[in-house]
Model the fold of this input.
Amino acid sequence: MGTISGFIFDYSKCVGCHACVVACTVENSTVPPLNWRKVNHFNRQKLPLLGFVHQSLACNHCQEAPCLKACPSGAYKIDPETKAVIHTPELCLGCKYCTWVCPFDAPKFNAQSGIVEKCHLCYHRLKEGQIPACAQNCPTGALSFDEIEEQPNPNAFGLSERNVYPRIKIVGNKVQSIVPQIDLAATTSTPVNSNRILFQENANSMEWLKEWPLAVFTFLSAFLVGWFWAGIGNHSIPLSPWLMLVIAGVAMAVSTLHLGKPLRAYKSINNLITSWLSREILMFGLFVWVGFISIFFNNIWTAYLASGLGFILLISIEMLYVSVRSGPKSLLSSGNTIAIALVFASLFGEHMSLLIALLAFKTMIYLIKVGSSLSNITPAIAMVSLVRLILGFVIPFGLIALRNESFSWVLLLSVILGEIIDRLIFYREFKPERPFESYLADVR
Done:
């Protein structure tokens, strides 16, 4: 195995002075509070005798860079000389998908410019025979830059367990086992887990309430696919081709509200080879137009084709979130778009027994998920969960049991609202991977 130039970080030498952050800011003229390099502190409350651990981290210019693969517009590229992962501002949509997939929280969304920024390894300095400014200005030698193994300890303490092969070598790993431990009960009357204080989670780059445009777009996609699937059967509520175009148009318009640069949305299918986001957008367009043609001309063969495209669309949506995590966690959510589509296929296809079975199953998954995280439930989330339970199961079950068709519009409205809440809550449960996450899971 060969070598490659990369960062070397020593936990035992880092004092958390932020000299590396200042050097990066000065070198690249970034505007605080947005910094390309971040020092994570794992005893923010500075509790005495508990010890301190610091971690200086920026873009590690992974050899299997997830940001490069995920970016729908092709805004990321590899510099041929330095092998640095470079972000091209002119191509960025501001979709923030790269901020999700990076397990090191390296890409930073700049709300002022509407695009993402990130460390470029000071590649201009490397070409002049110098090292990155952050490493050059570290006063303790905790952060340096030199030749390291081509695939250095990818699962090192504090880093992701995914095989993305970051260009960083971690030393001083013993801090994991020699951090001072004290009985906090001796200093406070409130029971405290010292590990949870020492290794606090870093702020998540994803604020779930701000993801409502994505929740609406993915919900409407599943809604349309489910209604279209229902039309394949003999007994169903018909979907007008013009209504299909209107709903699809609303979905697309709302989805652009998530972008920092909405006028660049046309670039979102530039990376079909590796980006699930590009595939999602393409499949959405194909499904809508083939579906419109099949309904307008009442052609069964194009209807089958559109049904298949709709299924691929939902798979693409789910893979957006599966690829962010190390496992298929989003597929186990009650807010899964495939499950939502099946609910509406049952509703518009008038298969009420199947509808109740699906709603009961989804409610069970939801309650299990909520029950597993009771310690993190706020009064607001508890209220939303109660509303979701009533709208998503209690009311539909009661109306179907009554067999009164005069309340069919109430049933439709109740199911729609319940599924929208479910999809929005999905984004609250969805957490992109961040540094030290695997270790935090062990100490809790």
Observations:
- The chain has 16 helices and nine strands.
- Residues 440-444 have pLDDT under 50 and may be disordered.
- Residues 208-429 form a domain with the Formate dehydrogenase/DMSO reductase fold fold (CATH 1.20.1630).
